[in-house]
Each structure stands twice: as structure tokens, then as C-alpha cells.
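Lecture notes, unit on protein representations.

Consider one protein chain, 100 amino acids long.
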Amino acid sequence: MNKEDTKKARDVMTAFIDGAEIECCENGKSHDPKAWKKHWGDTPCWNFADYTYRIKPKPREFWITQTGVGNATAHSSEQAAIDWSISEDEQLIKVREVIK
């Protein structure tokens, strides 16, 4: 492991200590979302030679304002969507990513 890999390993292990959910996959398969699996429970067994580890990503959330004619605008927060809304016929839609 080089210094950069060691820093990444340290960050994942620190996150585990802090209670984050950790996922792992075989080295070389990290590009495949289906390759990531939930890791152990409370007893870690680190194997950086054969596996890649990551902190489980949190689902993205954003809001959309949609007009009665179908025009839509995305916003990073609910307040931004409310502030953007200029007419009563606009719908405010909350979107949350589903990560399996």
C-alpha cells in the first residue's frame, strides 16, 4: 500500500469506529454497483490486499418544482424550491435516490 491507499484505509476504518456502515467488494470490481456488499457486523476483518472498502453512500435528495404545463426545475434544498416557486399551480416534489 502506498501513502494514498493508507490514508483511504484509515478513513474507512475511522468511519467504521464512528459507526458508519461499511461496504466492500473484490478489488477491480468497484465500478460495478452490484459488486458492493454490506460488510461484517461489529467485528472487522480487514483485507485490503483482496478487497476495496468504502463508506456506504447516502442517498441523494433534492426537490423539483413542476408547473402545470410540465416544466420542471431541480433544487438542492426544500427552501430553495419554495423560494423559487412563483405560482400556486407549481408542485413541490421531493426526490430521494434508492441505493440497493
